[in-house]
Amino acid sequence: MVAVTAVMLLVLALCAPAGARSANTAPQPAQTDSDLATVLARIHDRDFNGAARAAEAALRKAPADPQLTAAAALLEIEAGSAHAAQKRLRSVADERPGDSRIQYLLGICSLAMSDWPGAEAQLLASKKAGADPEAVRTALRCVKFLSTGSAGQAGQLALDSAIEAMSAAGEKRWKDAAKLAQLAALDTEGGDDPFTGSYGPQFSLNAARPIAASYVRNAAGAEPAVVDAAVSGNLLLSPTDVPRGTAYAGYELDGSALSIVGTAPFSYTWDTTRATNGKHTILIVLYDRSGTEIARVEHTMRVFNRRADSDGEASGAESSAALWEAMKLQPDRAACAYLAASATEHLGRKSEAREWYLRCAAINPAYQDVRNRLVAVGGIGQGGRAVFSGAGTEKLVALTFDDGPKQGVTEPLLEMLTSEHVPATFFVIGRHMREFPDLAKAIASAGMEIANHSYTHRSLTALSPIDAEREMLQTQAAVLATTGKLPKYMRPPGGNWNGKTAALVKNWGLTPCMWTVDVFDSEIIGAQKVAEAVLKQVRPGSIVLMHNGKVSTLQALPSILRGLRARGYRFVTVDALCNKGSGISSAGQAMHARPE
């Protein structure tokens, strides 16, 4: 497998002034800006534990920095530790009595503890000190609604819609409640993915506990203290362990072509200033002289560039604005989705309620009684033991394609399958469904079966139970919202599997689907090897694992179809194959994880 080395050549925006710095010299503004950028980038990515580690590491270097203090307190609030955040903030409040960020967060702490007078007083003080007016307005509106029951004046933000939805539901105006709750749940101001939670402090819609916990804080020492920094300037990207026969490397940024490099060591200098600040994915694909893919790797980086012409004062203003965005109250999307589902259920719209309960579960699988509600509206199937093949009584074979949909590869694959009248099963990655909805709809419209391959292709066995559930449920929600179909089968990324994961999958009504024939190694070599591997190994009832993203597989498919048809095989989906007989479950099957 190829690895990637990212070497910082020039960090124009983040480097400290030239010259040695003594141990007693305070960190330069550029360094604290860089540290804060790392914290905020991780909050934006919902890597809250990583953000907390980064904040504590930065505070050890600059313990008096108010922005880093605010960021650390914000993370304590998001972990459900408002008392700890309040203690941290009060320790610096006397030294910085006019700091609007400290006063605002003290108000949020009071709100979290249902101290309405204290919250109002701190928020008004922060407004007088120059706090972000929109942040204060929405927080005060939450305080007023929870303390008086009055929705107050309508606003334009998602949180305003959430409050108005709560008011409508209280008055049993279900049509208004459904519409407003859906608006609040779909608003991406607090994060660009509607199937995940927002990244600001989450207003829970519950007066008993107004601020919902976004994450569970890891125990000290549970994770390494080293935190990846945000990057900027020019980065030299270079593949390592380049396989023999590599002719050129293709570089992609977030799915779009960056460059093709045809000279060893196949390095590329990426100008990060041309990219937006935030998380980006770099893909490096290595090819041989025939254009056959040899290997690939994805690497995620967090970019943070200050304007080249910004001075220290301007940079501080940018950092402060970014921090304010992170501190603004956002509606708890799980709560909004649940309210939308409940309201549509009251209106008798059962299928719509199913979609919204599923969205709620995708964001927070443990939210109230959401699983029971999903069962009631038909959003959870029976589930079952892992399937490796069909019964083997007929010459049937199920072709399956993992990892799509992907632009440039899914289209010709789907065209070939359709023209040859071959039904297949696509094990999709949820985030790709969201990124390429037209491709997702095309797969469904062509009559192909859509199955679950997780949301971000992370190993389920390496995740906490709730994060593993999210990986499955976010994909279920994305598929249902995009195509109207609800997957029945789930394939774990890399085949990584254990008893706990099996129980989670079954609990949410899915049946694990493994494989009989795996051509992953052949796909790396080339089309001929893929065809040979399939034709050699297929038996009646086989489930063949291939990839929606490998050019070699696409090139091999005509030979596979001709060869199997010549032997009398018919092609079916996984569900059709399993329904032809009892199938072969995981009993007695040896399963080995493999890289993907």
Mind explaining what this structure looks like?
The chain is an alpha/beta fold and 596 residues long. Among the domains are: 234-303, Immunoglobulin-like; 387-585, TIM Barrel (Alpha-Beta Barrel), CATH 3.20.20. It has 22 helices and 20 strands. Strands 12, 13, 14, 17, 18 and 19 form a 6-stranded parallel β-sheet that branches. Strands 6-5-8-9 form a 4-stranded antiparallel β-sheet. A hairpin with a 2-residue loop joins strand 5 (248-253) and strand 6. The longest helix is centred in the last third of the chain and has 19 residues, at 465-483. The protein is globular and about 80 Å long. Mean pLDDT is 86; it is low at 1-26, 220-227, 308-314 and 586-593.
Instruction: Please write the CATH class name of the domain at 387-585.
Output: Alpha Beta
Largest sheet: 6 strands, parallel
Which fold name corresponds to the CATH topology of the domain at 387-585? TIM Barrel
Approximate strand percentage: 15-25%
Roughly how many Å is the radius of gyration?
26 Å
Low-confidence stretches: 1-26, 220-227, 308-314, 586-593
What would CATH call the architecture of the domain at 387-585?
Alpha-Beta Barrel
SS field, number of helical segments: 22
Shape annotation: globular
How many β-strand stretches? 20
Mean pLDDT: 86
Specify the helix fraction band. 40-55%
What is the CATH superfamily of the domain at 387-585? Glycoside hydrolase/deacetylase
Determine the N-to-C terminus distance.
Answer: 9 Å
Helix/strand-derived category reads alpha/beta
